[in-house]
Every structure is written in C-alpha cells, then in structure tokens.
Amino acid sequence: MVLIQLKINEPSDIGLELIPYNQFNKIRNIGKGHFVTVYSATWKHEVALVCFNDSHKFLNKVKESDNNFKIYGISQNPNQGDYILVLQSEYCTEYGKTYCKNCGGKYDHIDHTWCKQCLVTATSINSGNEKIDDLIEEMRLKINSHLNIIFEWIPYNQFNYIKEIGKGGFATVYSAIWKDGPLKYNVNEEMCTRVPNKKVALKCLNNSQNMIDEFFNEVRAYSINKIDDILNVYGISQNPNTKDYIIVIEYADGGSYNNWISINYKDFDWRNKIQTLLSIIEGLKGIHKKQKVHHDFHTGNILFLTKNLNNLNRKSLFISDMGLCEDVNNTSEVKTYGVIPYIAPEVLRRKPYTQAADIYSFGMIIDMQRN
C-alpha cells in the first residue's frame, strides 16, 4: 500500500492510499458541477469518484470534518490531471441533494439551496500579510446566508475615479468605482459572479500599518449582512504609496443624516421621522447585542443610501464610523470623543463611556427630529 502525505494545515498530516487510476472499471458519470465531476466505478467494490479540477477545492474536501462517507484513498486522472477522492458509493446518491454539486462539500443550510464552503472559498486569500489573511478568513467564516457579502482582499488598482469626499482626524474617505465589483451568489447556478463597476467608499486610516489592532477592530465592527442596519463592508485594500490600509465599505449616496435632512426637510413628515428613528435604534440595538459600545453616536455617523425621500425604506440608512466601537468591558479608560451635544453628561464628567451613553446620544437625535 502506497501512502501519500497531504500538507493541509492540520495538527497532523492525513495519510491516504494512492490508488492507480487504471484500477477503476465500469466508470459511469453521475453529475457535473463547476469544480467537481462525480462518477460511480468498480474498484475492489463499488465506489464514488469525486474528481476535482481545482486543487484548493480538493484539499478543502479532504479536510472536511464530515465523516458520513468513508474515504478509501485518492487518485488522479492521467488525461485531465484532475485530483480524485475515492469515497463510499453511497455518495453518488447524495451528490446534488445534501452535497453541493459544485464543490462536493456538504450543504450547511437546511434547505440545501446554498453552500457555505463555496462562499468561504470563492476567491483565494493572498494579501501578502498573514494577519490580514487571517482577518479575511475570520470575516468569511461569519457567513450564514447566501445574501452575505464575501469579504475579500481588493488590489488598489481595482479602483477608478477616486475622489475625496470627507476628512477627519483619523481617516480620509474617498468615493471610487470598483472595476470588477463584489461577488454575488447565484442560487440557481450555485456559483458566485461579480457585479462590475460598483461605486464604493474607501476609508483610508491614517498610519494604519502601525495601528493594526485598531484597524482590525474597526473592520470587525462593520457588517457583511445586507439586512443589518450597520454599514456593510466589502473588504480591505492598501494604498501602495502611503502603505495605509483601506476599509472598502458601502457608498451612501444620500450622505450623512445632516446632509440628507437639508435636502428633504420640507417633505420629512412624522411618519418618515418615526421610520428613520426605528431604523437607527435597530442598528444601535445590533451593536449593543454584540456587547459593544459605539462611542461616537451622532447624526454625522448615520448615512443614507438614497438622496430621495420617495425612495426611503427600512433599509435606506445605516450606522457608520465604527472606528471607536469597543467591547463593553473595555471602556474603563476615560477618553471623551464625539460631538458635544450628543455626549452624555457622565462622559463629560470623565466617567466611562457605556451603552447607556449611546442611548443618551440616540435621545438627542430624537430631540433633533422634533424641530
């Protein structure tokens, strides 16, 4: 028996028998996806041959913790060069039902309509920085719906028409066109495609290459869930000249709450006011559920996706600027941030910033709406 060792980043390598391809007989096609083709065959007995045209998908399947089907070994097609995983023959019956037809992995979702593994491994992760790569993987592992954003490393040369739209003490924000655009999962095709020429915002953090922990914390505070009330994040980039890291986030065409109100104040009735307040408090509730404190909650950090009041809906506004967001247990250091009218009195008296201080800020937003 010939054993090969696959280096797959596990505590110990996994030994598998190498089975010569000419030992398989009566090979019959069962189905084909984008990355795998499945055959039934006779070896010492009936087996399933799962043929991968992508070595990364092959290794992911080998590493998969699912033990429903015994792995007899691996092989390789001498003509196509495809890597082959030799499994129990019963896999042929489950392929395309409980196992993804494209990657061969087990469906995570109960109704088998989407494959988490296909989303997590949609693109290779290669930023050139191990810590950044780990963060990208961490963000992808948060995926729990095919509607989630696939977080990725985005080369800076992907951005065109870069224009400064805002500047603060910690960062400069630009608008830009992302040429290839974000990945989107097509349920019917069970594969990811890109939405090209996507307008995005680039938040360039000053000196971020020397403040990597703070940069990571801000990235984690944004959302990959499109139904959240927190601004969505698409990925990370880096300015090749300054070396500063960039957070690529959703572009809010309507601008800040203050800007949006100045355009729509004449038609902004009580029904619309209540709707916007409900969206804001839902976003803040989401932050607090994660045991976080926003720390800088005011109308300048509430953004609208649309300029037009007629297009306003439940998902038209988002909470942004998560740079000062902290864990509730990490607010003992007394620092005063924010816009004075929205800062809670106890914070001005040098007391720790708590979730209650965020609620005070929200109360001031309500008060502003009365006018």
Automatic annotation (TrEMBL):
Assigned keywords, A-Z: ATP-binding, Kinase, Nucleotide-binding, Transferase
Domain Protein kinase: 159-371
Pfam families registered for this protein in UniProt: PK_Tyr_Ser-Thr
InterPro entries: Kinase-like_dom_sf, Prot_kinase_dom, Ser-Thr/Tyr_kinase_cat_dom, Ser/Thr_Kinases-Pseudokinases
Molecular functions (GO terms): ATP binding; protein serine/threonine kinase activity
PROSITE patterns, alphabetized: PROTEIN_KINASE_DOM
Gene3D superfamilies in the cross-refs: Phosphorylase Kinase, domain 1, Transferase(Phosphotransferase) domain 1
PANTHER family to which the protein is assigned, alphabetical: MITOGEN-ACTIVATED PROTEIN KINASE KINASE KINASE 20, SERINE/THREONINE-PROTEIN KINASE TNNI3K-RELATED
Protein name in UniProt: Protein kinase domain-containing protein
Organism for this UniProt entry: Rhizophagus irregularis (strain DAOM 181602 / DAOM 197198 / MUCL 43194)
